[in-house]
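User: quick one - fold this with alpha-D-glucopyranose bound?
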Amino acid sequence: MSVIAFARVGRVLLAGALTLLTGLAAAPVHAETLRIACSALGEQRTLCEDGARAWAEQSGHTVELVAIPNSATERLGLYQQLLSAGADDIDVLQIDVVWPGLLAEHLVDLGPALGAEAQDHLPVLIENNTLDGRLVAMPWFIDAGMLYYRADLLETHGRAVPTTWAELTETATAIQDAERAEGTNDLWGYVWQGRAYEGLTCNALEWVASHGGGTIVAPDGTITLDTPDAATALDRAAGWVGTISPPGVLNYAEEEARGLFQSGQAVFMRNWPYAWALAQAEGSPVKGKVGVTALPAGPEGAPAATLGGAQLAVSKHSGHIDAAIDLVRHLTSAAEQKRRAIAGSFNPSRPALYEDPEVLEAVPFLADMREVLDAAVARPSTVTGARYNQVSTAFFNGVHEVLSGRMDGGAGVTAITARLQRIKRGGW
Ligand code: GLC
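Assistant: Sure. Structure tokens for the protein plus alpha-D-glucopyranose:
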């Protein structure tokens, strides 16, 4: 299917998935209708809708929400098809922290309009979003992989919060076995994201980095994956499938893992901060029973949390660039990031909010977030630039083969390395 044809299909899909938010204020002289693509993962759609509505009411413009796939990998594919066809379907895009290098050529330089505000955000994110001196996106929220646990089950079974992967495996097995012996047959020890998509790259990077196996490609561009530590890390994860993790974990993304954990069917879960507000919400079967901490460390390594998160960007193909920049300004403002932190446990990209008492009361773990962020590992998106998606795809497909038992960890890291070398020959 040609790019143009796909863009047309995209238009049809998008048209069916719009929410219209019209400003109540007196319409400005040139009232415009903008489209924003934001995620519907968990509560994100409602939060995005409320933020966009507030802006529409103030500005008199109209905003339409475009539904996009939950999977980061599918979302990138949709954006790339639309943007490379020059489609004007979307004015403001929620983009992943690893995408600026992939999409920069299609994005507006926000520096002239929003550069002064950039200094209130974490410098590392501004650096991440600046390509060839152009600020192509404003930070919206930060993600970092975290370990969720059932504090009530740990207490009942006299177990401590695990700090190493070996302890996690042991504790998950013990609690799962004991609970099943009591008749809780649907309880699993550990759920995470094992589908072959970007989320698996995030999980597997945590396993490998925490075992001392590096970050796939080092900041200087060297491919570092083919080590015994990385192989051990992948073998360990493969050992969870069908033992402490349901066989279906090989097709789990964030929401499948959260669904199981939140319904009370898992002792541990790896997920992003958004899962906290939902687990603690009224009506959640695990409300008041959940703790959250850093992911475990490997035998020699330290804990590692993959750095994720979303940025907001304006498409160069937009017919409403000034209004779109103003919408980005509103959505990434301190007031809006505070609202999203309190309502949805989205970690602000503005350091000042980590000291805000109302934010800390709603999301207590934010006080310790610095520690988690100190242990954060970045995916190699800056060094591999326009090749990042190929690198990540080679990595998650290879890891998925190991998890599915088609190769062991050693053969897996060797095979992935060979694929990465081929990609590197194309240049990074
Ligand atoms: C979250 C993170 C993003 C990551 C994705 C993987 O949305 O914010 O950085 O790529 O999950 O599923």
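One thing worth noting: The chain is about 45% helix and 15% strand.
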